[in-house]
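User: Predict the full complex structure for these chains.
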Amino acid sequence: MRIVADTDLCIGAGQCVLTEPEVFDQDDDGTVVVLVENPEGGQVDSAREAVKLCPAVALSLQE
Amino acid sequence: MTAQLPATLPITRGCPYAPPDEHRRLRDEAPIQRVTLPSGETAWTITRHEDIRAMLTDPRFSSDRRNPHFPLLAKGQRINTGFRASLIGMDPPEHGPARRKVVGEFTVRRMEALRPRIQEIVDQHIDAILAGPKPADLVKALSLPVPSLVICEQLGVPYTDHEFFQLHSSRLLSRLTPPAERKAAIDALRDYLGELIERKAQEPADDLLSRQLEQQDDREELVSLAFLLLVAGHETTANMISLGTMAFLERPEDIRKIQEDSSKTLPAVEELLRYFTIAEFAVSRVAVEDVELGGVLIKAGEGVVPLSNLANRDPEAFDHPEELDIERGARHHLAFGFGAHQCLGQNLARMELQIVFDTLFRRIPGLRPAVPLDSLPFKDDASVYGIHEFPVTW
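Assistant: Here is the predicted structure of the two-chain assembly.
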């Protein structure tokens, strides 16, 4: 599984960082930074949760 | 689908904990249907969680409040204020870059850095409550000053002026304010912020408005932004503090749960946000193209009013949605909206609520309402639901 982030769509809501700070971060202007592109184990579920919560539909998963 | 229910908006809640029965009837009998607005104009209401998420991420629905078909819920709101659109009224391609200029001020990390100062503000106000007379009004003593002080410090607005902007904010948020008074409140706030920004241009300080001035010269856009953040930062969190405290006081077992395990407070905050959905009408839109939504054709030029409070109790999205269950995991609620305009201050609000509930019940374990809860003056006449006064004792 690979996390794909569209930084043009990102609005900096921070929902992904709140969900899984080991996988997602924000840069200084709020834009998403994917720390772990290919999550494994427990991070898989939280990556799914982050994708579901992203209000800007900026995150997706390639299975 | 478009059953003929004689529906008008807004409808008074009746029960302080729940959407009005008429709303529930709307969702059950016709989840998307036409309603009449106070102006006599018609719009669509949508009530399903899935439909609201779909609409709020669809660029064919516009946020532009200057659009003559934009659905408004108070008479006299369609007034020409000569005011530049703020973030909430912008569409792409204008919205993205404008939001990006300020969103760095609200990142999860920036909010975390504010935590000690917010804790200090909460502690000082609880000190004052404990030292003062009983009963105390929770709204005046804690709910309103905490978020108000935090947003003022963040923006660089002198808190000594708080009576001035609290008065004008509450006039703006009341649906009963006559149009002329509404315009006067907008003008007063705009003039005040315009002068403040001029002063900051001369003497910059370490605050959001000064930092924004370094990035941009467009003073009007900055006044609009300051206006939005100040008004939005005042009443919303304040009302959630009051309503959340009320809900906790009715459920001592929930107070015990968060006292025994503080990691339960943040999920509890999410559930309270879902349960009360205080800005239930905050995310209206107007279609700029014909769109099929949930099996209904919405035509270009038609307004759509999502009823987020019903979506947040949609049984398709939440099990036993009428129950307040602080451990349910309610993060996908729509209390902060959804889509590109989702609340800019949401993580600040979360942190303030978490700190307030953790601190309040730890420091005043005997806290209790000083009047029967059903006698509290609820804000049935305001765009943001809440409580006007909340006498508490201990």
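The longest strand of chain B covers residues 32-36.
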